[in-house]
């Protein structure tokens, strides 16, 4: 009897379909994956970037609302798309004359504005024909701007002026002016006028005199609050 051992049979579990050996489960260099080792698919880089972008936009909007309270009087607004403001006529010219007279009595001269100016406006003011004039402030040439709006009749002028007063007192309108801004809103016939000034921003003390002089023109519309 021979002492030779029978040849070892190959383990089918250690061969691949191509005949090469592979380790059986649990015999590799590392431990077999456990149930907690796979957390499922992770967010793609594009999804993470989109999420970060949304958060950044929200932060910017919040900061803009907070900083908006320190802006100069009259952030720019524009009429709704497709709206036409038309050309101011005789009523606005009459009111311009009354404003010039009132300011002249206070020692202030008036001239037509040489640059475009739109204060923050409610829809009624934003779509109305207008005339922009400037009370000359030698120490503050960027301010002293007064807008005269013309409407079809006195009722429409009063309604638009009241809407403007409510708008500048609201959260949306108020943040477009500095915190200490004071407003003058008046109606005269079928026109309304608007003047905003800030003691903190204006560098000419006569900015307050403009407001006082305008109080003698037409009928005042109080701003709530």
Element layout with pairings:
Layout: H1 45-67, H2 90-105, E1 110-112, H3 123-126, E2 130-135, E3 145-150, H4 154-169, H5 171-174, E4 182-188, E5 191-197, H6 207-214, E6 219-220
Antiparallel strand pairs: 1-2, 2-3, 3-5, 4-5, 4-6
Helix pairs in contact: 2-6
Oligomer: single chain
Strand content: 5-15%
Spatial ordering of strands, largest sheet: 1-2-3-5-4-6
Number of strands: 6
Q: Let me know the average pLDDT.
A: 77
Largest sheet: 6 strands, antiparallel
Q: How would you portray this structure in words?
A:
- The chain is α+β, with helices and mostly antiparallel strands and 225 residues long.
- The protein is built from 6 helices and 6 strands.
- Strands 1-2-3-5-4-6 form a 6-stranded antiparallel beta sheet, with helices on both faces.
- The radius of gyration is 37 Å and the shape is elongated.
- The protein starts with 44 loop residues before the first helix and ends in a 5-residue tail after the last strand.
């Amino acid at each position: 009897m021979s002492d030779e051992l029978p040849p070892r049979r190959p383990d089918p579990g250690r061969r691949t379909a191509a005949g090469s050996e592979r380790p059986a489960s649990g015999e590799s260099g590392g431990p077999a994956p456990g149930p907690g080792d796979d957390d499922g698919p992770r967010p793609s880089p594009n999804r993470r970037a989109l999420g970060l972008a949304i958060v950044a936009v929200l932060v910017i909007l919040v900061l803009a609302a907070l900083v908006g309270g320190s802006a100069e009087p009259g952030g720019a607004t524009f009429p709704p798309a497709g709206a036409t403001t038309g050309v101011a006529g005789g009523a606005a010219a009459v009111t311009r004359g009354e404003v010039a007279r009132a300011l002249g009595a206070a020692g202030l001269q008036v001239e037509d504005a040489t640059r475009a100016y739109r204060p923050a406006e409610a829809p009624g003011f934003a779509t109305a024909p207008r005339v922009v004039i400037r009370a000359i402030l030698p120490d503050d040439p960027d301010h002293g701007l007064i807008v005269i709006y013309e409407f079809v009749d006195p009722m429409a002028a009063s309604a638009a002026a009241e809407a403007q007063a409510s708008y500048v007192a609201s959260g949306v309108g108020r943040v477009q002016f500095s915190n200490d801004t004071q407003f003058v809103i008046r109606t005269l016939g079928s026109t309304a006028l608007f003047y905003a000034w800030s003691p903190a921003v204006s560098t000419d003390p006569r900015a307050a005199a403009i407001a006082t002089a305008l109080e003698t023109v037409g009928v005042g519309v109080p701003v709530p609050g």
